[in-house]
Automatic annotation (TrEMBL):
Keywords: Cell membrane, Membrane, Transmembrane, Transmembrane helix, Transport. Belongs to the drug/metabolite transporter (DMT) superfamily. Small multidrug resistance (SMR) (TC 2.A.7.1) family. Gdx/SugE subfamily. It is found in: Cell membrane. The keyword Transport applies. Signal peptide: none annotated. The chain crosses the membrane at residues 27-46, 58-78, 84-102. It is a multi-pass membrane protein. It comes from Labrys neptuniae. Gene3D superfamilies: 1.10.3730.20. NCBIfam families: PRK11431.1. This is Guanidinium exporter.
């Protein structure tokens, strides 16, 4: 279950990052509220996952999901650039996350 909580926490991290961008520096009320609510959910689920996962593993996976997820949302939803260097960087993050998962006992 810890891994499921961690993945969901990572997804909520992507959501709060997107809405933080939409809040325009917390100047728009609804995106600001969505940012803080999803941030609390993300942190809460991360905390639950850390009950049984090592700190380094949980935090690395959480931030990695957030980083790659935000990159994908930026490209697909916000029209940000997806050049070869950025795609390779995202792939390297994913490979690091995979190695972290494989090196951590269930």
């Amino acid at each position: 279950m810890a891994w499921i909580y961690l993945v969901i926490a990572g997804i909520f991290e992507v959501v709060w990052a997107f809405y933080m961008k939409q809040s325009e520096g917390f100047s728009k009320l609804v995106p600001t509220i969505v940012t803080f609510v999803t941030m609390a959910i993300s942190f809460g689920l991360l905390s639950i996952s850390m009950r049984s996962l090592p700190l380094g593993t949980a935090y690395t996976i959480w931030t990695g999901i957030g980083a790659v997820g935000a990159f994908i949302v930026g490209v697909l939803v916000l029209g940000e650039q997806a050049n070869a260097m950025r795609i390779i960087a995202a792939a390297l993050i994913v490979s690091g996350l995979t190695m972290m998962k494989l090196s951590t006992p269930a």
